[in-house]
Specification:
The chain is 25% helix and 30% strand. It contains six helices and 13 strands. β10 and β11 form a beta hairpin. The model has no long low-confidence stretch (mean pLDDT 93).
Length: 252
């Protein structure tokens, strides 16, 4: 019986500790192929490369593992792996472990989740894993058992077409897992205006997340703030089906 084939990518780059940990964990479950960006690609969402040639190269091969790096985005990495590397569709795609939260509205900016949505669109069971710690040396040890548990259960039970999982862990102690919904919120004061030594104005991305529903106990933000791993089933179909009915009543 063939072991599951697992495709791994991320947006922190092929040398990030998070993808190294995730690779070691997934090798306990199946045969692993890694296709990761050759450097940080945070905030790339579902971006694809159209302005220059894409390339990839093999950096390691041993029993149960082949690793590649690419000059593309996380979404490019998934596309390249499916198009030119793999001889069959993966049983599972996992992205991460991202250094930093991808909860709430972050999902639409995240390169980590962009890769997951690309896998989802291709009919692959796909999961993104992130932790609320931006440090290069983030401690993933407590999160590891939950990653294995979620990956195994997802492989066993599957996901509907067009649905993926956005999994985030708090920094530090973990009480358990909460299946949650995406919290409503937005980023505010997103650019700091500064002046360089030549007297020219420039802007630096900054800001903070504003939770629009801090009292709600069923969101990913609440789960993380209270020490739980959040698991949010997320859809690639962005259609508001209810509003279709209302718009059809407009004078169009």
């Amino acid at each position: 019986m063939k072991r599951p084939l697992i495709l791994i990518t991320n947006d922190d780059g092929d040398t990030a500790n998070g993808i190294d940990i995730l690779t070691k964990l997934m090798m306990q479950i199946g045969d692993v192929v890694v296709m990761a960006p050759d450097g940080p690609r945070s905030g790339q969402s579902n971006a694809i490369t159209v302005s220059h040639p894409l390339r990839y190269s093999k950096i390691e091969e041993r029993e149960g593992l082949v690793r590649y790096k690419s000059n593309g985005t996380p979404t490019d990495c998934v596309k390249l792996a499916l198009h030119d590397v793999l001889d069959r569709k993966p049983d599972l795609l996992v992205s991460g472990i991202n250094h930093g939260s991808n909860a709430a509205i972050n999902i639409i900016y995240s390169g980590t989740m962009g890769a997951v949505l690309e896998g989802c669109e291709n009919g692959i069971t796909s999961i993104g894993f992130s932790i609320c710690d931006h440090s290069y040396n983030a401690d993933f040890s407590i999160f590891e058992q939950y990653i294995l548990q979620i990956a195994r259960e997802t492989l066993k039970n599957g996901l509907p077409y067009g649905v993926c999982l956005n999994v985030n862990a708090p920094k530090g102690a973990i009480k358990g897992i909460r299946v949650a919904r995406q919290c409503k919120g937005n980023w505010t004061e997103e650019y700091a205006k500064r002046v360089d030594p030549q007297g020219k104005t420039y802007f630096w991305l900054t800001g903070h997340f504003k939770n629009h529903e801090p009292q709600a106990h069923d969101t990913d933000e609440w789960a993380l703030a209270n020490g739980y791993v959040s698991v949010v089933p997320s859809k690639i179909d962005l259609t508001d089906y209810q509003l279709i009915k209302d718009i059809n009543k407009w004078d169009l």
